[in-house]
């Protein structure tokens, strides 16, 4: 995708919005950075990474809402909700669109897939068979991959929140390949993730969220990569610490 043709060029605070900077969501460093300085959204695939509480989900659901997508997943026309728990961030943002704006858009978040499946089942397409009618009969991971395969494709703006959650190692590899395919099809994709596997996608942009706010990072620099390497190298070291096992040199 040419950088000028991406659907979203930038997201920034709406000058007309009133924001309480002391509110829990607005005081998250990454969210505060977007409200203060805005965020340029690159072409291709962008990963948002960071610890729990760093603002990944808050930011991606705010971006989805500001773009006109359902906060609990789906397309622009989706209307389903379990319990409103999202922050008011979407209403405080405005999206600066690029030349590719107006195309297809979809939002998938692992934690609300059950509600999305029910909505899709109860709202079949006006023409053709309802291919989503059997999603509840499949495993979480199988259903997720089915929705991804049918709803994500071609030029457009696509968002995912922790898509690796229901997937096995092999299925996550398959998703990595799908992300590469979407990029080749001209899609702009933003993914919030904890996965060192997904973030290994060559050529992707990685934005690390934390107490510093938001900064660009390389795969090798990520804490999730270093931590997994150290764990797989020596799991006993971590297990002794977490589970209270005796040290290897204990005389007991």
Descriptive report:
The protein has 252 residues and is α/β, with parallel strands linked by helices. The protein has one domain: 3-Layer(aba) Sandwich (Rossmann fold). It has eight helices and nine strands. It has helices at residues 29-37, 56-67, 89-92, 113-122, 140-151, 169-184, 223-233, 235-243, and strands at residues 8-13, 39-40, 45-49, 93-97, 104-109, 156-161, 187-192, 205-210, 213-217. The strands form two sheets. Strands 5-6-7-3-8-9 form a six-stranded mixed β-sheet, with helices on both faces. Strands 2-1-4 form a three-stranded antiparallel β-sheet. It starts with 7 loop residues before the first strand and ends in a 9-residue tail after the last helix.
Compact overview of the structure:
The protein is of the alpha/beta class. Helices cover 33% and strands 19% of the residues.
Please tally the helical runs, counting DSSP H or I stretches of 4 or more residues: 8
Distance, first to last CA: 62 Å
Rg computed from alpha carbons, rounded to a whole number of angstroms: 19 Å
Percent strand:
15-25%
Task: For this entry, give a set of tags.
9 strands, 19% strand, three-stranded antiparallel sheet, Rossmann fold, globular, alpha/beta, 252 residues, six-stranded mixed sheet
Topology overview:
Blueprint: E1 8-13, H1 29-37, E2 39-40, E3 45-49, H2 56-67, H3 89-92, E4 93-97, E5 104-109, H4 113-122, H5 140-151, E6 156-161, H6 169-184, E7 187-192, E8 205-210, E9 213-217, H7 223-233, H8 235-243
Parallel strand pairs: 3-7, 3-8, 5-6, 6-7
Antiparallel strand pairs: 1-2, 1-4, 8-9
Helix pairs in contact: 7-8
């Amino acid at each position: 995708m040419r950088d000028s043709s991406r659907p979203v060029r930038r997201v920034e605070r709406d000058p007309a919005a009133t924001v309480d900077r002391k509110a829990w969501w607005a005081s998250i460093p990454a969210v505060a950075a977007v409200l203060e300085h805005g965020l340029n959204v690159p072409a291709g695939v962008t990963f948002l990474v960071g610890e729990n509480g760093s603002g990944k989900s808050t930011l991606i659901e705010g971006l989805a809402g500001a773009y006109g997508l359902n906060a609990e997943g789906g397309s622009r026309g989706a209307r389903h909700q379990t319990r409103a728990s999202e922050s008011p961030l979407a209403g405080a943002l405005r999206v600066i669109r690029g030349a590719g704006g107006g195309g297809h858009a979809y939002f998938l978040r692992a934690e609300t897939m059950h509600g999305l499946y029910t909505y899709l089942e109860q709202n079949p397409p006006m023409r053709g068979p309802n291919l989503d009618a059997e999603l509840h009969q499949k495993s979480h991971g199988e259903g997720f991959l089915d929705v991804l395969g049918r709803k994500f494709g071609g030029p457009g703006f696509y968002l995912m929140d922790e898509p690796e959650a229901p997937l096995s190692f092999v299925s996550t590899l398959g998703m990595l390949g799908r992300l590469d395919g979407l990029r080749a099809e001209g899609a702009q994709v933003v993914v919030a993730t904890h996965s060192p596997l997904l973030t290994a996608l060559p050529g992707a942009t990685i934005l690390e969220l934390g107490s510093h706010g938001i900064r660009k990072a390389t795969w090798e620099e990520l804490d999730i990569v270093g931590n997994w390497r150290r764990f797989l190298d020596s799991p006993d070291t971590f297990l002794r610490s977490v589970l209270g096992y005796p040290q290897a040199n204990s005389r007991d």
